[in-house]
Every structure is written in structure tokens, then in C-alpha cells.
């Protein structure tokens, strides 16, 4: 079967194929996600264009939400979001009934949720931290995630079929407290894309375009700090959140008004639970700054 990419996506995909992050950057809004390997973006674009669901898998702060927002922007598609938690239920996904007044009379209205809104409008649905939801909750939308692209709304008995353009992007952080393994039936409904940390020149570009830090020397030092933290995470010396790119960008912003070491303390170090971990980060910051 031949799949025809929308013109707007095809044009962007051609730029991505040239493997030129600098040229591609102007196509996405400021602060958008430019991946460390362009194949990640190519594969996500192709999968969504073919009607596949995409699961972004990677450490916290690696840019999964930015990745999803960038894909939404590239396809020129609005994106409805679901933030998963143990409290997620059918109403959070599909909508809920409420009382309202019409011509002075009390009536029952149905307020659609993010899943039904995205399906009816033919836009993107983003499911964040999908493995935080209770195992019995997400199977409610199995029919939405497979070839049927259909669900029977239990609150209205309406059969909702997704319009053309509907797509699902989900994100997962594995191994965190409160998360549960995805069951095979759910996982098999996704194309999985591993999202690594952004490093080197791309991280430098991200800092200069999304934070207030303009001192090139400090930018270079923060890039080195990030590299050291990522290495420590891979070696098992620090938890993943210590190398969060989101936290690093916060530290860069703070360092424009307070000293870099204090900025690192507030944005990164003080989030860590163990004294050993905090001391490790402090030693790296002391060495660099």
C-alpha cells in the first residue's frame, strides 16, 4: 500500500533527510525539539504519516514532550493531552456529564475529553507518562489505538470514529516509583522510538535559543556539566533525574542572575534524595565553575 505524505510534512521530511539540524531548526518554532539523531525524527514522521501510534521512550528531561510538540507543529496539527496518574479514569479520557441550563431548563450536557476531542477533530492525542496509569484504565481505549480507530463512549453510547489526521503519541519513563510495566496488548499498538539525552553542539544550540544565558564561556561549561552528569547516570552513580535537560536549562536561566554553582544547587542538586548524590554533583560543579 502506498502512503502519501501531506505536502507540509513531505517538505519538512526532505529537510530532515539532509541531516542538517541548523537548516531544519528554522522550520520548527523556537524551543522545538531537534533530536541528536535525525533518524529519530524521520522515523516518527513516517510512522505518524502511516497512521501508526508512536511511543517515545527515554529518561526524564530528555525532551519527549518537546518532541511531541514539534511533531504536532510539523504536521500543523493541534494536540490534545492526557497526563496519566493513578487517578486517571474513563471520564479523564473520554469526558463527563454535567448539569447546565437551556432556555431556563436544567439539562444534562456531555463535556468531551481529550480522546474524543482529538478523534472528532482529526488531530493529535498526546498521552504523557502512559505507564503511570492503572493497568485497567488504558485498555478502555484499545480500540482507539488499533486499526479500528473507534470507541463506544460509555457515557453517551455514541460510537466515535476518528477523522483522518488523528494520531497518537505517548511518552514513557521506565523504572520510576508509581509506574507499572505496559501490558503486551498495549505496547504492541505502538512504534517505539528511544529518545536519548541531547548532548554537544545540539545542547549548546538549545541553551542559546531557549534560555537567557548568552555568555558563551558559561554555555560551554554547562554543556560539559551535562556530559559529566549523563556519564555518571550511565555508570550508575546518579539517578536519571540528575541529568535532566529540563533541569539543566533551568540552571542556565538562573545563572544569569545568581552564581552558576548556586543555580546548579537549586535546579539540580537539591532535587536529589541521597547526600552521596548531592555531593557528587557539587564536586562536578565545583570543578567546572
UniProtKB/TrEMBL annotation:
<comment type="similarity">
    <text>Belongs to the CbbQ/NirQ/NorQ/GpvN family.</text>
</comment>
<dbReference type="GO" id="GO:0005524">
    <property type="term" value="F:ATP binding"/>
</dbReference>
<protein>
    <recommendedName>
        <fullName>AAA+ ATPase domain-containing protein</fullName>
    </recommendedName>
</protein>
<dbReference type="Pfam" id="PF07728">
    <property type="entry name" value="AAA_5"/>
</dbReference>
<dbReference type="InterPro" id="IPR050764">
    <property type="entry name" value="CbbQ/NirQ/NorQ/GpvN"/>
</dbReference>
<feature type="domain" description="AAA+ ATPase">
    <location>
        <begin position="50"/>
        <end position="237"/>
    </location>
</feature>
<dbReference type="InterPro" id="IPR003593">
    <property type="entry name" value="AAA+_ATPase"/>
</dbReference>
<dbReference type="GO" id="GO:0016887">
    <property type="term" value="F:ATP hydrolysis activity"/>
</dbReference>
<dbReference type="InterPro" id="IPR027417">
    <property type="entry name" value="P-loop_NTPase"/>
</dbReference>
<dbReference type="InterPro" id="IPR011704">
    <property type="entry name" value="ATPase_dyneun-rel_AAA"/>
</dbReference>
<dbReference type="InterPro" id="IPR001270">
    <property type="entry name" value="ClpA/B"/>
</dbReference>
Amino acid at each position: 500500500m502506498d502512503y502519501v505524505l501531506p505536502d507540509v510534512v513531505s517538505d519538512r521530511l526532505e529537510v530532515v533527510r539532509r541531516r542538517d539540524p541548523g537548516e531544519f531548526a528554522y522550520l520548527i518554532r523556537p524551543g522545538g525539539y531537534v533530536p541528536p539523531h535525525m533518524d529519530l525524527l524521520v522515523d516518527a514522521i513516517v510512522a505518524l504519516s502511516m497512521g501508526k501510534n508512536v511511543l517515545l521512550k527515554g529518561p526524564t528531561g530528555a525532551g519527549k514532550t518537546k518532541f511531541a510538540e514539534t511533531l504536532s507543529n510539523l504536521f500543523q496539527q493541534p494536540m490534545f493531552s492526557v497526563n496519566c496518574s493513578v487517578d486517571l479514569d474513563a471520564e479523564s479520557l473520554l469526558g463527563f456529564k454535567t448539569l447546565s441550563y437551556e432556555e431556563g431548563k436544567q439539562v444534562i450536557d456531555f463535556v468531551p475529553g481529550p480522546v474524543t476531542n482529538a478523534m472528532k477533530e482529526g488531530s493529535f492525542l498526546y498521552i504523557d507518562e502512559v505507564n503511570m496509569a492503572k493497568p485497567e484504565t488504558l485498555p478502555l481505549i484499545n480500540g482507539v489505538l488499533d486499526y479500528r480507530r473507534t470507541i463506544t463512549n460509555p457515557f453517551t453510547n455514541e460510537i466515535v470514529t476518528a477523522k483522518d489526521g488523528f494520531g497518537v503519541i505517548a511518552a514513557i519513563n521506565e523504572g520510576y516509583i508509581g509506574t507499572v510495566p505496559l501490558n503486551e496488548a498495549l505496547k504492541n499498538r505502538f512504534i517505539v522510538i528511544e529518545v536519548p539525552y541531547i548532548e554537544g553542539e545540539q545542547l549548546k544550540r538549545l541553551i542559546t535559543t531557549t534560555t537567557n544565558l548568552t555568555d558563551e564561556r558559561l554555555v560551554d561549561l554547562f554543556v560539559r556539566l551535562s556530559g559529566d552528569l549523563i556519564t555518571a547516570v550511565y555508570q550508575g552513580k546518579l539517578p536519571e533525574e540528575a541529568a535532566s535537560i529540563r533541569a539543566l536549562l533551568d540552571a542556565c536561566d538562573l545563572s544569569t542572575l545568581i552564581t552558576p554553582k548556586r543555580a546548579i544547587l537549586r535546579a539540580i542538586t537539591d532535587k536529589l534524595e541521597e547526600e552521596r548524590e548531592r555531593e557528587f554533583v557539587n564536586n562536578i560543579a565545583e570543578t567546572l565553575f
